[in-house]
Amino acid sequence: MARLKQDIGGTELPRIWILSDARNDAVLEAALKRLPRGSGLVLRHYHLPEAQRRARFAALLRIARARGHRVVLAGTMAQARAWGAHGAYGPARLLARGGAGLRLVTVHSLGEMTRAARADALVLSPVFPTRSHPGGKVLGPLRFRLLAGRARRPVIALGGMDGRRAARLGGGAWAAIDAFLR
Questions:
Q1: DSSP class of residue 44?
Q2: Where are the alpha helices (DSSP H) in 67-139?
């Protein structure tokens, strides 16, 4: 699997990422404090109206910065810059435009990987079954490794991930929602 050797602005990309949503909102502050220094947060919080989402982002950004974490906003690069994020998270078509910043592009197939030309890292999912998409199709470890091996960018595994499963995949970068609920 492609390791996160690439750096942006002199800083290595994080190996562990937490993705926010309504399920883990209540534990985000504690989770950010428990994560190793230099980890990452992707603020999604699609469930909140814009003003509340921005206020929640600002509160979490303060904690994340104090811990040396990178913070990425689900949205456009312009929105991420306006909010003070290190970058943006989303599909390639959403992140194709905009200025400087870290781009975490979501991909689920080889075709999507080839369209992620401006990505700094690929968030490849779902690796394992998830609560987010119960009964949904998953890549599984073998297909994940095959796709990650063809990536021309660093890969972040997402979908049913935790530290144990990341080690099983080879110890590369990973992201999760539910792994941080405990």
A1: -
A2: 77-83, 92-95, 110-114
pLDDT of residue 4: 42
Residue whose entry in the numeric block shows the structure tokens 């080690």: 167
**By the 8 A CB rule, do 99 and 89 touch?**
no
Q: Is 101 helix (H, G, I), strand (E, B) or coil?
A: coil
Beta 155-158 vs 121-124: how paired, if at all?
Answer: parallel
Cβ atoms of residues 75 and 88 within 8 Å:
yes
Helical segments of 14-169, H only: 28-34, 50-66, 77-83, 92-95, 110-114, 140-150, 163-168
Cα gap 60→128, rounded to integer Å: 28
Cα–Cα distance measured from residue 11 to residue 132, given in angstroms and rounded to the nearest whole number: 31
CATH architecture of 7-180: Alpha-Beta Barrel (3.20)
Q: Which of 86, 100, 84, 104 is nearest to 158 (CA)?
A: 104
At residue 99, what are phi and psi to the nearest 5 degrees?
-85, -150
Across 36-40, 52-56, 106-110, 177-181, least confident range: 177-181
pLDDT tier for residue 12 given thresholds of 50, 70 and 90: confident
pLDDT tens track for 92-151: 999 988 888 999 999 999 999 999 988 999 999 999 998 777 777 999 999 999 999 999
Structure tokens at 162: 């935790």
